[in-house]
Amino acid sequence: MGKKSKMSAEDALEKKMKSKRKQAKKAKSMENALEAKIRKKKAAEAEEEKMEESVGFTSGQDDEEYGRKIKAKEAEAGGSHLFTSGGGDVRNRPRQQLQQNQPAVDPLRAAQQERDANKKEMNSRFQDLHSTGQWGALGKVEKYCICLLGLGAIGAAIYFGLRFSGGGAGKTPSPTQQPTKSPTASPSAAPSMEPTGPSYRAEYAFELMTAASPKLTLPQTPDELVGASNDPSSTPQELAAEFILYDDELEIQARDPRFMERYALSVFYYQNGGCELSWFTSTNWGSGEHCNWHGVVCNLQNRVVEINLGSNNVSGKLPVEFSQLLELGTMDLSNNRLSGRVSSESLSMPKMFTIQLNSNLLTGEFPFIEIKPEGAILDTLWIQENIQLSGSIPESYCTMGSVTLDCDNFKPQPTFLDDGSSTTTFQAQCLEEVGAQPREFTCNDETSSPVSVPVPSPSDRICGVPAAGT
């Protein structure tokens, strides 16, 4: 079969218009037929009423005369109007009424008279409302009554308001209830709203920095920080606080979590040789976004997640301010000149995964328990080649992925699986009590020392003097 020719838009529109005109014509013819039917019905009703009025009942008429009149009227009307609105078919009317010589009654008039007799008298005002849609005029007495009712309602409202609100004359207000909650044992970590005023940023930021740093490293007020960079006795914390409050070009708000991260990194820079220019590389430190500082890696929210400064001649102690790096997962400070005891605050961040502090000068007991509490995600710990570092290893480290240390300095001592093997168990009870052991447990047999480099000659710059005990 051949394909149908495609109908053009004009043909389709013309066809649609023809269909609409045909429907309109059909509707018009139906409307005319309905109007003709209505007119015919009205004419029939008028004819019936006229016939009823002309055909009356009198006491002297008999059945024959009554029948002749009915037949005459039917003949005049064409014999089609045998029914009336008052009494149905006129041929079926009761003849007993004529035989008893009773006067004839028009059923329509009788029904109307019965309705008029049963109608109750309507109030004049309701009659006005029924006919005009408006109330009738109020009388003088009625107006006075309405005013009195309104005043009475207002007075009652005032009385009950005073009565139940405790404000009545001569009544003593009832004591307020005790607060439902007792005050907290300690203030919250941060106020719910940042203080207002010209110095709100400095005051609130100073509170945060004081809480993060040990005592004796910061003054009593933020105003005392001004000029710290010109005072040789300033601490690294004072230099870092002055920089981030008054000299930092970014001017980060104190409520921004990056503020305290930037403060912690600045303390590390002043305290661990960066300010003295002893680092091999310190590109961008102290200027611009801290995510661009050498060795600092951030996520998409500009939060610090890695510090990679291995083999960079970093000296000094691990600062406790590192506890503010809440997103930090990797810390590589291996092959440097870090010394002193390791504080638990500097390494026990909630997302810490990898710690590499091998080949330094760390001393004292390593805080195993504090760094890896129950459920922590720490997986890699390299602390070998710190010949004066020691400690006791808890069973929670059985689930670690990689542990490397100087085994002779730590307890319990590892056990070799067989003679001549370099593979060791972490401790005898790992598999028995915990059901797991580290995938890699390495005992360091080498003795090495951190890279020795000449310390740069002192310059005229002020880098801070750590306070005693820090």
Automatic annotation (TrEMBL):
Residues 17-27 have a biased composition (Basic residues). Residues 7-16, 66-76, 112-123 have a biased composition (Basic and acidic residues). Residues 171-192 have a biased composition (Low complexity). InterPro entries: LRR_dom_sf, PGIP. Residues 1-125, 169-196 are annotated as: Disordered. It is found in: Cell envelope. This is Leucine-rich repeat-containing N-terminal plant-type domain-containing protein. It comes from Thalassiosira oceanica (Marine diatom).
